[in-house]
Structures are given as C-alpha cells and as structure tokens.
Amino acid sequence: MNSLTQQTTDKQEQKKLVKFFNLQFRKMMEQCHKKCITTKNKGKLGIAEKACTDRCVIKYIQTTAYVNELLNSFSQEVDQTLQMQQQQSQQK
C-alpha cells in the first residue's frame, strides 16, 4: 500500500470512529436524559437530576467498556479457534 492510499484509509477510519463515538454519545445522552431529567426548566438541572445524570453517564461508560472487553475476548477466542482449525486442516 502506498503512502497516499494509507493516508486515505486512515482518514476513512478516523471518520468512522468519529461517527461511532458521536452515535454512542448521542445514545448515552438520550438514555440519561430520558431517565434523569424530570423537569422542563430550561438551562437548570435540579440537584437530584444532576446526581442521576452523573451516575447514569458513569454506568453507561462502565457498561460499554465491559461489553467491549467481553466482545474483544470473544473475538480473540474465535480467532484462536479458527487458527487452530486452519493449522489442523493444513496438517491433513
């Protein structure tokens, strides 16, 4: 792959990541807003709403990190299994 092609690929990957993080942020905001914001006051959150939002964001981030760890672990196990199967089929 030449330098220009690599740069284009890197920029495309960066755009995908930005879109992914924007989507995740939007989902988190929607979920936490739905759960925590009970008043219609514009610009001011109550103490309970602030505390709920803080807890919600933290739980959302922790849960997302946990799920990512599980998926990465599962993906590694699948890769290892596939590699072992390929090695076994090559030995036959």
UniProtKB/TrEMBL annotation:
Its main location: mitochondrion. Gene3D superfamilies: Mitochondrial import inner membrane translocase subunit tim13 like domains (1.10.287.810). It is a peripheral membrane protein. Keywords: Chaperone, Disulfide bond, Membrane, Mitochondrion, Mitochondrion inner membrane, Protein transport, Translocation, Transport. SUPFAM superfamilies: Tim10-like. The keyword Chaperone applies. It is found in: Mitochondrion inner membrane. Mitochondrial intermembrane chaperone that participates in the import and insertion of some multi-pass transmembrane proteins into the mitochondrial inner membrane. Also required for the transfer of beta-barrel precursors from the TOM complex to the sorting and assembly machinery (SAM complex) of the outer membrane. Acts as a chaperone-like protein that protects the hydrophobic precursors from aggregation and guide them through the mitochondrial intermembrane space. Belongs to the small Tim family. The twin CX3C motif contains 4 conserved Cys residues that form 2 disulfide bonds in the mitochondrial intermembrane space. This is Mitochondrial import inner membrane translocase subunit. The lineage of its organism: Eukaryota, Metamonada, Anaeramoebidae, Anaeramoeba.
